[in-house]
Amino acid sequence: MITKEEVLNALRHVEEPDLKKDLVTLNMIEDIKIEGNNISFTVILTTPACPLKGLIENACRNAIAHFISADANVDVKMTSRVTAQKNQPLTNINNIIVVASGKGGVGKSTVSANLAIGLAQTGAKVGLIDADIYGPSIPMMFGLEDAKPLAMQTEDGKTRIVPAEKYGIKILSIGFFTNPDQPVPWRGPMASNAVKQLFNDAEWGDLDYLIVDLPPGTGDIHITLTQTYPVAGAVIVTTPQNVALADTKKGMAMFLMNSINVPLLGIVENMSYFSPAELPENKYYIFGEGGGRKLAEQFSIPFLGEIPLVQSISAAGDSGEPVILQENNPTSKAFSEVVERVAQQVSIQNASEVKRF
């Protein structure tokens, strides 16, 4: 008769490829049931966006076949429980991910929007803060230009902002509270305090990931947020040109400063190449080639992916329907791969024994 201990011993030979430990040691195996020759169990992944889900499932099946019986009927249920940052004071938010760029105009907000939606599509609970207060574009990208978030009273009498909701994510932007046709001359402390309100005074509920679209460059908001809240990591957005890469290096160096010390989850290279709609297989590297990948190698961080320069991306953003929502679209697939790699890197960071806060 097959025993539970035999199943666990077999699964001790299955290593989580990113975390470099076996599934049993990582407490990723639950609900083992054995009925004669039928074996079922659940594998708890660290994120629903795990790109190695199929690999892990096949490894589990092979382990049972090799160490127990090749004739066993194996039912593997794959689910997830998103890991949380160590010492996270915001108990309802598991992971804060900031999206940053060294300069404006490289598509940082586009990456933020598609990253948030992509994570939500995997089943994660996701929020998005538009902290780019000098040029908030998230409302337009989600078709929420006229949105006016409501307020609610908590049981202890406090007033909380209720985020807008679209495409399965909760959204707050400074743009919801300002006139889009009027400039807002923010001073440094005013800007930082305004953004902190989006964290502290909002009713976010329980979130697996909170994506923060930062202003371009390095400034008060970056320092305030990273020193006030524990950040799981930063996604860096650049384009291939040397002028963008030079500014990107400065932005990355800021996150690595001892006083900030935020892990770099990796680099996304936007506008990597141009593919005309009539010739989708053709790639024209009009801004240079491989700059983002080389920069990732220089800093020894992951290269998260290339996003092509195609009309559908800007058209989708302008229409309030980010391109990742389009099925069977090569650009949507490129963003989905970035989403998986970001979630993967967050899980790796959370498994690290190094405590940063």
Automatic annotation (TrEMBL):
GO terms for molecular function: 4 iron, 4 sulfur cluster binding; ATP binding; ATP hydrolysis activity; ATP-dependent FeS chaperone activity; metal ion binding. InterPro entries: FSCA_dom_sf, MIP18-like, Mrp-like_CS, Mrp/NBP35_ATP-bd, NUBPL-like, P-loop_NTPase, YlxH/NBP35. One of its GO terms (biological process) is iron-sulfur cluster assembly. The keyword Nucleotide-binding applies. SUPFAM superfamilies: Fe-S cluster assembly (FSCA) domain-like, P-loop containing nucleoside triphosphate hydrolases. ATP binds at G102, K103, G104, G105, V106, G107, K108, S109. In the N-terminal section; belongs to the MIP18 family. Belongs to the Mrp/NBP35 ATP-binding proteins family. Binds and transfers iron-sulfur (Fe-S) clusters to target apoproteins. Can hydrolyze ATP. HAMAP family: Mrp_NBP35 (MF_02040). This is Iron-sulfur cluster carrier protein.
